[in-house]
Amino acid sequence: LTDKDYQVLKAVPGVEKISAALFVSGTIEGKNKKTASGLVIGTNRDGVIMNPTPLQEGRYFEESESDQNFCILGAKQKEELFGKEPAVGQMLTIADRKWKVLGVLAKPQNDGSLGNAIFGLSDFIYLPEGAVHRDVKNCQINRIVLKTDYKHPAEKMLNTMTQTLMKLHNGKEEFGLITQKKGLALVIKLVSMAQALLVLIAAISLFVAGVGIMNIMLVTVTERTREIGIRKTVGARQKDIFWQFLTEAVVLSILGGGVGLALSTAICKLIARFSMLTPIITPVVIGMGMGLCLTVGVIFGVT
What is d(CA 167, CA 162) in angstroms, rounded to the nearest whole number? Predict the structure, then answer.
């Protein structure tokens, strides 16, 4: 992608904001030689604003400051480099150059989906593109990011952009257009694959658990023959015996479900603490889980 592509796309009707993204390689080093990881991007003011995460500290750089050695940190990098200390005004070393921290983004709102995990909104560090062009060798435009007016038909805009870029690239499709719709489709595909795998694992686990309950009940009946005989002697009917053992099987399965629910809750909290994902446990999920436990208890208890 070139600056000519950028200028032409800027003129497409319906484009509200546009920014070039230049990927910068190199270590990110703060004071006391502390280092952090993240995706360093050279861009303009609109490129930072298009990140839906708001500023927590400081301010955005202005278009007139494009050639200044400023940077805007993500929340993750701020914590890794400065902890609880204020980061605005501090100096960083990126690609062997000094950059002054102008602002810090807040932690992204995590809705429990994979979106933030895949697109890593807390892992970006922004630099003014003019300063990147001047100070960082071998930098080029890796992405062009656009925000469009929803009132313009999306498909028509995509066709216009594709045809425009094809003309500039001599009819060669040396680029790809990625929309939120395509990104969402990729996320849904990944989630569907994970769900299918988890359903298979859960089905096997339920079957094994059911066989375990069935074996335990069989051993219980065998060992309690004398008790059953005494109960029948004092007037217990066949269905009374049946309901006794069925109740024991159901109680056993519900207790197992409760233990599994407690372990699941603990694991979900660990995932939320040490990763970008936030698993959500809802009353519906709890009800479905316990309902499955009850069903397994009844089916294999009767068997």
Answer: 9
